[in-house]
Amino acid sequence: MPSPVGHALGGAIVGLVCEARRAGGGRGLRAARAALASPLVVAGAVAGVLPDIDFLWGRHNMETHSLGAAVLAAVVAWSWQRGQTRLALTVGLAWASHVLFDWLGSDDTAPLGVMALWPVTSTFYFAHAYVFEAISRRYWLDGFVTHNLWAVTTEALVLGPVLAVTAWWRSHAAAPPVARS
Ligand SMILES: [Zn+2]
Fold it and tell me: Rounded to the nearest whole angstrom, what is the distance from the C-alpha of residue 157 to the centroid of ligand 1?
């Protein structure tokens, strides 16, 4: 299961994809930076991390780690900012990206995986894909720091370039049409 860094990057990518075309966005690094500072990117990053709030009540990887919870989160966002369909879509899809990443990641605590299809079923799903390292919370074990540092580095190496390319694509897409004479 990725760290909050990996989940925030995933949610930010979703926010960028959901971003509307903005006239006069320009091109290049400055435009890419502006795309990254969009409220939808921030909302996506937050929604991407939020499912792990279940640590607080000791039901980790259960109800909040499901597509049902993603739909609920989108409905809550839509009710909060009525009519902001892009925000609701970003929140729902970013939340779902958390479920996807945890499904694709590593897990060392039974039951393995996530309750992805709650409330339809409480079955746990696990892809055995091991795309992301499991973040260790066993701070008393040898290698705790080095393992987690490596896990976060891997997430950044996998998702960082995806975020950069998506930011470039959005800023490129947002560029105004070239005037023809
Ligand atoms: Zn999680």
Answer: 19
Count Cβ atoms below 10 Å from residue 92 Cβ, excluding itself. 24
The residue-averaged pLDDT of 92-119 equals 95
Residue carrying the six token digits 């009540």: 57
* pLDDT tens, position by position, 5-43: 999 999 999 999 998 766 555 667 888 888 888 999 999
Residue 30 alpha carbon to ligand 1 centre in Å:
33
Helix orientation angle between 144-173 and 4-18, rounded to the nearest 10 degrees = 10
- Which of the 8 DSSP states describes residue 14? H
pTM for this entry: 0.89
Q: Are 142 and 153 in contact (CB under 8 A)?
A: no
